[in-house]
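BUG: 3D viewer hangs when loading the predicted structure for this chain

Environment: internal workstation, default settings.
Expected: structure renders.
Actual: progress bar stalls at 90%.

Input used:
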Amino acid sequence: MTLTLNVLVALLIALGLSVGLFLLRGRHEARAAGALESAEAALATVRSLSEREKANATAKGWEASLAPVLRVLSMRKGTVEAALIRATAIRLSLSQRLFPVATLLLLLGGGAGFLHRERARELVLYSSVTFSYLGKFLALSAVAFCTFVALSPFAPPLWTLYPALGAAATGTAIYVGNLPPKL
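C-alpha cells produced before the viewer hung:
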C-alpha cells in the first residue's frame, strides 16, 4: 500500500512539475501552441478516417469534461488554456484507444507469472520477496508513466506508451511469479 501511495505521489509531483515549469518559463502562447500542434499531429497519424473522426469526437467529449477543471485551476479563460485543454483531450482520446491492448498485456504478464509460480512449486524453487517488490514497483511506475503521458500536454510523445506497457506487463509477471506460494 505504501508503494502505491509513493507512486501516486510521484505522479502528482511529475504533473505539478510539468505545469509549474510551463508557468515559470515565458512564451506561454508558443509552448501551448506547440503542445496543441504535437497533439494534432498525433491525431493525424490515425490511419482510418472513421477511427480518426471517432477519436476526435472522443476528444471533444474529454474537452468538455476538462474545461471546468482547468477553469478552477486557472481563473482566466484564454487561448493558452483552450489550447492546453484541447491538447490534453486529444492525448487522452488517443491513449484511451490503447486500453484493450494494455489490459491484454497485463493479463498476459499475470498469466506468465502464474506459470512461473506453478513451475516453482513443482521444482521446489524459492520465491523472492525482493523480486516481487521490484516487479510491483516496475508495474506501478509504468502505469504511472502512462497516466502522466496521457494527462500532461507537455509529456513525452504517445509512442512511449508502448514500451511503458511492455514494462508494466513485465513487472506484473515478475510480481506475480515471485509471490510467496502460500498466498
